[in-house]
Each structure stands twice: as structure tokens, then as C-alpha cells.
Specification:
- With 181 residues, the protein is α/β, with parallel strands linked by helices.
- The protein has a four-stranded parallel beta sheet.
- Helix 1 packs across helix 3 and helix 2 packs across helix 3.
């Protein structure tokens, strides 16, 4: 039943993705300043490179998720899912399972297999909001996915290949966060 429910959810996500493409495209952006025009130009350029990971920086409330959606819905991955994940909202003990999934019995409470966000975003875009708040131990595992597209669900011995564009955003000054450890 869970697999059937997941399949129905995946199909609904595909329909929603089509509607979202109309809603979140560049046509919805409004602005005339030279800074805004450069931003639109950058988004258009990034739309053409569907496998390139993107980092969006800026203060809270400046529209980083809107930019991520415009990159996704205007590019080659538009027919795939757009999966947003707020990294600061994930409890650190659940972060690995949330990103990479888990197998039944992998830990107390894991009563069924669960796809993580990377697997859910397969063929589309995973938007990692507030990436600067990601737990440090997860960063090495994230690097592996960015390098070769392989994930290992918690409790699994086999890796899985995923094709996901990662768009990350942060309001942190990452250089100073790195310098401070």
C-alpha cells in the first residue's frame, strides 16, 4: 500500500510540476534595474546548464527560492520534480535519513523503507535552503552525491545512482563560517 501511495504521490507531483512551471517562470518576475536585469540574465544562462549545481546567496526574504524555482522550471529539468528542503528545519539525528532515505529496520522507528529527498528529486531539482545550517557530518556525504551522483540510504550496503540538480541557498556568510570551523 505504501508503494502504491508513493506512486500516486509521484504522479500528482508530476502534474503539480507542470502547473508550477507556468507559475514560477521568469515571466512572473518584475523589475527594471540593471541589477535585476543581470539576475534574469544569470537565471536564463543557468537554465541552459541542467546539471550544474548552483549556490544562491542573499539576505532572508530576498527571493532565493523564487530564483531556484525559476532556474528549475525554465530549464531541462522542468518536467522533473522540484523538491525544496529547509536544512535548518531538519533535526540533526534525522538529517541523513531525510536526504538519503533509509531501509526498514535501519534504526528504531524505521518500520518501512523510505526514499530520501535526493531519490524523490531524481530527474529534477533538489533545493537545499539554508545550506549553511546543514550538520557538519553530512557535508562529506553531500559532497559524494555532488561528485558522482551516488547515495547510500541509511542501513543499506548498496549505493543508488540519482540524477539531481542541486540548487542551494543561504543567508550565511559561508566564507566566515568556514573560517570559524
Amino acid at each position: 500500500q505504501a508503494e502504491q501511495a508513493l506512486q500516486v504521490a509521484d504522479e500528482q507531483l508530476s502534474v503539480i510540476s507542470s502547473r508550477e512551471a507556468e507559475r514560477w517562470g521568469l515571466a512572473a518576475f518584475v523589475g527594471r534595474s540593471s541589477t535585476f536585469q543581470k539576475l534574469v540574465q544569470d537565471i536564463r544562462r543557468l537554465q541552459n546548464f541542467g546539471t550544474v549545481s548552483v549556490l544562491i546567496t542573499g539576505e532572508s526574504g530576498t527571493g532565493k527560492e523564487l530564483i531556484a524555482r525559476a532556474i528549475h522550471y525554465g530549464g531541462a529539468k522542468a518536467k522533473g520534480p522540484f523538491i525544496p528542503l529547509n536544512c535548518s528545519a531538519i533535526p540533526s539525528e534525522l538529517a541523513e535519513s531525510t536526504l538519503f532515505g533509509h531501509l526498514r529496520g535501519a534504526f528504531t522507528g524505521a518500520t518501512t523503507d523510505r526514499k530520501g529527498c535526493f531519490e524523490q528529486a531524481h530527474g529534477g531539482t533538489l533545493f537545499l535552503d539554508e545550506i549553511g545550517d546543514m550538520p557538519l557530518p553530512l557535508q562529506a556525504k553531500l559532497l559524494r552525491v555532488l561528485e558522482d551522483g551516488l547515495i547510500t540510504p541509511v542501513g543499506a550496503t548498496q549505493t543508488k545512482q540519482v540524477q539531481v540538480r542541486v540548487v542551494a541557498a543561504t543567508n550565511c556568510e559561508l566564507d566566515s563560517a568556514i573560517a570559524s570551523g
